[in-house]
Amino acid sequence: MTDLLGLAAIVPASAGACCTVGAWRPGRAVDVVAAVVMVAAMVDGAFGPRVLPGVLWFVVLALLAVVVAAVHRVQSASGASGASGASGASGASGSDGRPGSAPSVRVASAHGRFGRLHAALGLLVMGALGVGMAHDPGMTGMTGVGVHGHGGAVAVTWQVVLGGLTTGYLLLTAHMVRDGIRRRTRALPVVETLAMGIAVAVMAAAMV
Fold first, then answer.
1. SS3 for 64-117, per residue?
2. How many other CB atoms are there within 10 angstroms of residue 146's CB atom?
3. For 37-148, where are the E strands, in sequence order?
4. From the CB of residue 191, how many other CB atoms can be counted at a distance below 10 Å?
5. d(CA 81, CA 89)
6. Confidence (pLDDT) at 176
7. Strands (E), the chain
8. How many angstroms separate the CA atoms of 198 and 170, rounded?
9. Which of 3, 94, 161, 169 is the most buried (most CB within 10 A)?
10. Is 21 helix (H, G, I), strand (E, B) or coil?
11. What letters, b where the CB count within 10 A reaches 16 and e where it falls short, cover 9-30?
């Protein structure tokens, strides 16, 4: 059953990756690379023998998560500086052209605010779930099978951290999907977010 659910998770993950590729624009190349690598890690885990061990895939996905977060930070800082310059030029007249009028503030969508966080967290969760589902020799100590004493404490800690990450990711997914539907935003980002959430939920179910 675990293997079947692992295979089933590849379908929504691939759909999410296709949405990421379809929504590509300058500055999002790292997102496309991360999505493709994540699906490759899932396929490698589902069809043996593995090309890379589960732990190594986790390291690769964790590094990509850091890169995604760093790129987002740089782009956000660049966009904020550009926006502050534009608002300073038009601040005297206000948004409606009348002196003293307050500029209108547009609240960003949940996808705009949390999209990159969702992507980075998804990479971490998928990598960690891949370790938990790994059938590599010597992986039983991490997954909690046949461990005692200190090894058992490490396995329990790993499961608690993994459960927290997964729960947080799924809650963030639900919030972003709900906000996207409420705002009637473009379908592609909503489908991408929902597909990745389903993939994580299926992977998590495979470990129960």
1. HHHHHHHHHHHHHHHHHHHHHHHHHHHCCCCCCCCCCCCCCCCCCCHHHHHHHH
2. 10
3. none
4. 19
5. 13
6. 92
7. none
8. 9
9. 169
10. helix
11. bbebbbbbbbbbeebeeeebeb
pLDDT of 206 reads 82
Q: Please name the residue ranges forming H helices in 91-137.
A: 110-132
Cβ atoms of residues 13 and 41 within 8 Å: no
By CB neighbour count within 10 A (0-12 exposed, 13-18 middle, 19+ buried), where does 169 fall?
A: buried
What is the per-residue pLDDT for 75? 76
The total number of residues written for the chain in this structure:
208
The two tokens of residue 184 are 């009637």
Q: What is the pLDDT of residue 145?
A: 46
Confidence at residue 93, expressed as pLDDT on a 0 to 100 scale: 47
Cβ atoms of 202 and 129 closer than 8 Å: no
Residues of the chain with pLDDT under 50: 89, 92-93, 95, 97, 102-103, 137-141, 143-148
> Position 120: which residue type?
A
